[in-house]
Amino acid sequence: MRRRAILRALVLVACSGGVLAAAVAVAPVATPAPVAAPAGVRTFQFDAAGSKLGFTVTRPGEVVEGMATQFSGTVRLDPEHPDREGSVTLEVDAATMVTGNRIRDRTMRNSHLETETYPAIRFASTSAKTKTKPEPLRRGEERPIEVEGRLSLHGVDRTVRIPLTLGYDGALLTADGNVQFTLTEFSIPIPQFLWFVLDDKVTVHFHAVAKPVTP
Asked: Which of 3, 55, 202, 209 has a CA between 20 and 30 Å from the CA of residue 63?
């Protein structure tokens, strides 16, 4: 009797193990949930090919247009909190600025910008203020922002405020705006071409495109 009870128990254990093994074999393998992209401050790099950085100087009866052909920089921004911890840096190769007139360009570089002594024009932001509620950037939205920072030009540092319109499509950042300043506040002589004297005021205008930097 005892031997039969033991045999019966062994049979039940074996059957239970077979059922458990079968259940494990047919059970679906759980797929791990996708991990969300990390939120927070991201770094974007200016795309010089897709951006435009120009300047305008006037003189009686004429407007002189110019542009910088080589520049680089980065934007650090949290699209969820665009009013926090953002920053912009920009560096322009002053010797690559052109106006479409070789004689005028040579004079601008040598006598006014003195590019051999001051080869770079730099901007570094110190703050950014949104003119609307500090909400996350939405695709297709354009948001007005004022960026304040230090402009280093011709060996002189000045604080400038730049009003701009910021856009975001989920990947690329865009910024459009302009800023005005005078040449004399940066110790730059007012340009004179033949008998024409240009105005002291310069308007810098830009369309900037920045791509996310891959970690």
From this structure: 209
